[in-house]
């Protein structure tokens, strides 16, 4: 009888210990699960931020490219104007002023006719 009682007590103690161990394991599992979900959310947020940064960087790069192209076109236009002005100036110098004098005389004659 005493042996049976001791065996029963041991059995109950073992079941109680098993229940406590299972509860502790369940609690640890749930805690780890919450931590994992939190880390997942943090990573999702970080991914979204990185995607937004990438989108903004692409937009800035496109704007910089457009600006560089516009500046290059402006530079080409100014270079063309400068070449034309230089060519005109050289032509004026090469005729020793005779061409410009002739133009002034033509203008004067046209005004006299009016």
Structure commentary:
Residues 81-95 have a biased composition (Basic and acidic residues). With 114 residues, the chain is mainly alpha-helical. It has one domain (2-113). The protein has 2 helices and no strands. The radius of gyration is 46 Å and the shape is rod-shaped.
How would you briefly describe this protein structure?
Helices cover 96% and strands 0% of the residues. It is mainly α and 114 residues long.
Low-confidence stretches: none
Following the backbone from N to C, one meets helices and strands in this order, namely: HH
Rg, rounded, reads 46 Å
Helix amount: over 70%
Number of strands: 0
Keywords: Coiled coil
Produce the secondary structure layout.
Elements: H1 2-94, H2 98-113
Key features?
114 residues, mainly alpha, 2 helices, 96% helix, rod-shaped
